[in-house]
Amino acid sequence: MGDLLQRQVSNRLPMPDLDELRHRLRTGSPLLGVPTVAEWLTAWLAKIKVDESTLRSYESQVRTHLIPHLGDIVLDRLRPHHIEDLFDRIEARNTTICEAQASNDPAVRASVRGLKVTGPATVARARGTLRKAFNDALAREIITGTANPASLIKTANPRPRPVVWEPERIARWKTTGHVPSPVMVWPPALAREFLDFAAEHSPDLHPMLHFMTYRGPRRGEACGLLDAEVRLGQHEVSIVNQLARYGGRLRQKPPKSESGNRDLILDADTVAVLKAYRARRIAWQLKAGSTWPDTGLFFVRRNGKPWNPGTVSQAFRRLVARAGLPPVRLHDLRHVAATVALAAGVDIKVVSEQLGHSTTTLTRDTYQSVVKDVHHEAAAAVADVFRTNYGRKA
Questions:
Q1: Who contacts 130 (Cβ-Cβ below 8 Å, separation ≥6)?
Q2: Domain contains 59
């Protein structure tokens, strides 16, 4: 306020409108006119109410990309071409890094050691962060009468489609190590082979891996499954919690979206696996006595402590390698559950609800293309129609 009044007096300007000052104080916007992108993003981060992981993502995009490249622009003068220029600079930096890494000159390679290219997913997140911050500025009337420039820019962020480990792909992988896609899916036979191997070589972790393969919860949802939400007598569990690691600490929080809160119906095989696990867990607890921690979680380690999601992923990768199976990620067990359910004829809406998707569109677009049995049956059905109704007359 003092800086504002001094500026007005020094420049012989009229005193600011009192109601406008009150509005700016109430909304947390700068008092000296429309803020710059840097000023608004800084104020916005200080006030926004989101979970810790989302806030850290916003802070990373703001610090790394948005303020360094767009910070000096007055917020209501930000235009789509400014954002396109930012993306062009990111692409130019990527090219420089890649060329330096491929250089024959050791000094040139050393100059980019430790640097990483900025991928399309990160660019899309930066745009999304800016779009959200600009929309909030419009909603709070920090600026008025302008379209959101970030909404007018499109970014390329293709979602990799799951690819099934067919026999021909497995043969090539064994020969060359080639993995066709970042997202690979085991067919049921390989998934069954892996679970049998895990049951023998990692019996403590096997029940969780079985649950993930059959019902498709996310990693954090499986690690954060609450004991009170497991009703094996009714063949169901409720997903209302997840476990994640923030700032070096494990924390429990609600699922990532409202649709993430859901009930999962269990098959008889899964119920049997979980009942056997619960009996072993009771034995662990009795042996530990008063030292057993009360986490409230269903899946725990032998000492009663929670499973770290990162540790589960590392253990999974080691098990896959030891089993000699073609590689998939832990998250790809979710894809196994989805594709097997679709191949079994389960309705797309049921599968979508099982996975906690907000709409069936995501489920259909992501998984339907890999369910070959469904497409084979559809092709055969079309041929049957032609043969039955349009066949050549004798």
A1: 61, 66, 70, 83, 150
A2: yes
Q: What letters, b where the CB count within 10 A reaches 16 and e where it falls short, cover 291-326?
A: ebeebebbbbeeebebbbbeebeebbeebbeebebb
User: Is residue 231 one of the residues assigned to a domain?
Assistant: yes
Number of folded domains that form the chain: 2
**Euclidean distance between CA atoms 176 and 170, whole angstroms:** 10
**Verdict on whether the full-model pTM lies above 0.85:** no
DSSP 172-205: HHHHH---S-SSEE--HHHHHHHHHHHHHH-TTT
d(CA 250, CA 219): 13
Helix (H, G, I), strand (E, B) or coil at 256: coil
φ, ψ dihedrals at 31, nearest 5°: -85, -15
- What is the rounded average pLDDT of the residues 313-341? 93
102 & 202 share domain: no
Range 182-195 average pLDDT? 92
Q: What is the DSSP letter of 158?
A: P
Q: Do residues 175 and 305 share a domain? A: yes
Last residue of a domain, one of 152, 172, 194: 152
pLDDT in tens, 349-393: 888 888 888 777 667 666 655 555 555 655 666 667 667 766 655
- Region 270-287: mean pLDDT is 96
Q: Which two tokens stand for residue 207?
A: 């029940």
- My answer on whether 182 and 92 are in the same domain is no
Q: pLDDT: is 228 or 161 the higher one?
A: 228
Predicted confidence at residue 392, as pLDDT, reads: 55
Domain edge (last residue) among 87, 121, 152 = 152
Cα–Cα distance, 155 to 297 (Å, whole number): 40
Convert 255-282 to b/e letters by CB count within 10 Å (16 or more is b): bbeeebebebebeeebeebbeebeeebe
For residue 116, is pLDDT > 80? yes
Q: Residue 34, class by beta-carbon neighbours within 10 Å (0-12 exposed, 13-18 middle, 19+ buried)?
A: middle
- % pLDDT > 90, the chain: 56
Question: Up-side HSE of residue 152: CA atoms within 13 Å toward CB?
Answer: 12
